[in-house]
Amino acid sequence: MADYDPSEVGEGTGDAAFTRPDPLGGSYEATYAGATSFLRCQYTRDLQGFDVAVSGVPFDLATTGRPGARFGPRAVREASTNLAWDWPQGWGFNPLDRLKVADWGDCTFDPGRPENWIERLETHATEILATDTAMLTMGGDHFISYPMIKAHAAKHGPLSLIHFDAHSDTWEDADGRIDHGTMFYHAKEQGLIVPERSIQIGLRTHNPKTHGFNILDATDVCSADAGTIANRIKQAVGNNPAYLTFDIDCLDPAYAPGTGTPCAGGLTTRHALDILRNLEGINLVGMDVVEVAPAYDVSEITALAGATIAYQMLALYASRP
Questions:
Q1: Percent of the chain at pLDDT above 90?
Q2: What is the pTM of this model?
């Protein structure tokens, strides 16, 4: 990546999401202007030659508490304009120099027909994955991970789940219900994920059953350094294809108030970023950031945290062996 030149900000054609001539590289467009694609990447649904497709899923009908995560993709995209000119913290490269990243836009659906929604999102993911393009998905409530995992498991086989969250999301539930606290129970029951090769990080709510998942609760995580936590994640996952999901409520509400089910006693943004940085080398095949609900945010700090974590995920994907 070329050195940052402040004189370039606001110059040129603007609206890089539509006008940039090359999908590689960062963008120097003014943060307060222009089309807000994720990191100013090119908006396109023609994925030929692209490495990663970013898409939003503005869905929150599975929320059990405060709604509003349907506005998360828009908020994360807008916050990402503050990051597009630089590379992610802790990495010696810009993933946008290594990966051709497209912003596919949002997967929309008719909210009056929620019975079709799971199939709609699974088809969306399946069609993108069929182009051999990886996916970075922005929620939406956490239930969106379930159809995403279904599509990824169909391509890659049973997955290891790397799950950052305040909640286990493995409470037992009846078939056919949609609930952002039960979808990983369904995924485990259906053989989409391998619990003994999966790990949950940052939990601080009670579920009497682990269902065989490795668990690092918030006390464990907050009392250990990032490298130690990352090594435990790597030991659990091994080289199995991994799906990484980050519920923004894994962070303490002091760092991420804009979410539907905030829970005190969580990770700092700094600690979470350092753990992600130390996961370099995992066999990452899919990733999402969920549960950003901007109506409850303060000065857009939750949206910024979500965008920064998503950028870290791109760097992690770009660094795969």
A1: 80
A2: 0.94
